[in-house]
Amino acid sequence: MDDFDVVVAGGGAAGLNAALVLARARRRVAVIDAGDPRNAPAAHMQGFLSRDGMAPARLLEEGRAEVAGYGAEIVAERAERIEAGFAVHLASGRTLHARRVLVATGLRDELPDVPGLRERWARDVLHCPYCHGYEVRDRPLGILGTPHLGLLLPQWSADVVFFPHRTELSADERERLLARGVHIADGEVAGLVVDGDALRGVELADGRVVPREVLFVGPRFVPRDDLLAGLGCATGEDGWVRTDPTGRTSVPGVWAAGNVVDPRAQAVTAAGMGSAAAIALNADLVEEDVRRAVAAHRQVAGTLGAPASAG
To answer: Where does the FAD/NAD(P)-binding domain lie (predicted)?
Structure first.
């Protein structure tokens, strides 16, 4: 049957952890997993207690096995749209019906238009010092156009160069960077210099090449929130879907967790968000179950208490 208590759209850390908690609560759960996680290019993840250094693909593989072991269904497809009610339409034409839905479809990283960035992404072009800083400590680091990273990265290396590229630095920003010991290489970045399948430097438009082994970039985070938008979930002034602390959206019965609503969430954070959402979802379902049980109880009690008809 394709009827579920909860359908989870998205099989990353948030979605799988939510499904794990719900399945252990003996809810009928399906996880729709399109198989294109944001962290797929990364060789490892860090800062996740007991999972530090684990390959993201392995985390998801083990997570799917755990969730399936409790009876949840893993559906290797893409959710195309969700109708109120809730009918979850998949790319294959299959439709799942749910009492509640959780959307955990993540985000995509939109990189600056600089030749070579995408090809080196998650290898020696990185975005998160907390995820990768320790692994590249004490190496020649660069930052492309993101001043706050320039202030942060000297914690990991004394050799840091900031490339403003097309970012206009204020006098205060420039002073703060220089005070932190960060060198500033003015001029537009033309591309990356790669040799032997490794980053060797950053080339400027005037032909200068600044030797660097790692380049940090602040991508534009774009939520994969089409399913939430289609349901009419309210957004904040920043354009991101609003939720309460449990992940509840403005639409009754719809929750969201992970990077689809929080661009700062790392894998461990997203997993926690999934757990919180699952507990809230189950509580909401319990309330509905109780209302139905009370209505049925009253109907039976009323029938038993009714006087027998005169024959």
So the answer is: 4-272
Mean pLDDT of 250-271: 96
Environment class of 253 (CB within 10 Å of its CB; exposed 0-12, middle 13-18, buried 19+): buried
Tokens of 35: 């198989």
Q: Are 246 and 229 in contact (CB under 8 A)?
A: no
Closest CA to 90 of 82, 98, 80: 80
Q: Which residues contact 138 (CB under 8 A, 6 or more apart)?
A: 156, 157, 158, 159
Cis before 86? omega within 30:
yes
In the predicted structure, residue 307 carries a pLDDT above the cut 70: no
Band the pLDDT of 83: cuts 50, 70, 90: very high
Mean pLDDT, residues 60-76: 96
pLDDT of residue 223: 97
* Cβ-based neighbours of 181, under 8 Å, separated by 6 or more: 154, 158, 160
- Angstrom distances, CA of residue 283 to CA of 9, 103, 142, 277: 20, 18, 48, 10
Least confident of 51-60, 221-230, 259-268: 51-60
pTM of the model: 0.91
Neighbour-count burial of 105, counting CB atoms closer than 10 A to its CB (0-12 exposed, 13-18 middle, 19+ buried): buried
Angle (nearest 5°) at CA 163 between 158 and 167: 135
For residues 75 and 193, give the distance between their C-alpha atoms in angstroms, rounded to a whole number.
Answer: 42
For residue 183, the cross-strand partners are 161
Task: Kindly list the structural domains of the chain, giving each domain's residue range(s) and its CATH number in brackets, ordered by start.
Answer: 3-109+220-300 (3.50.50.60), 112-217 (3.50.50.60)
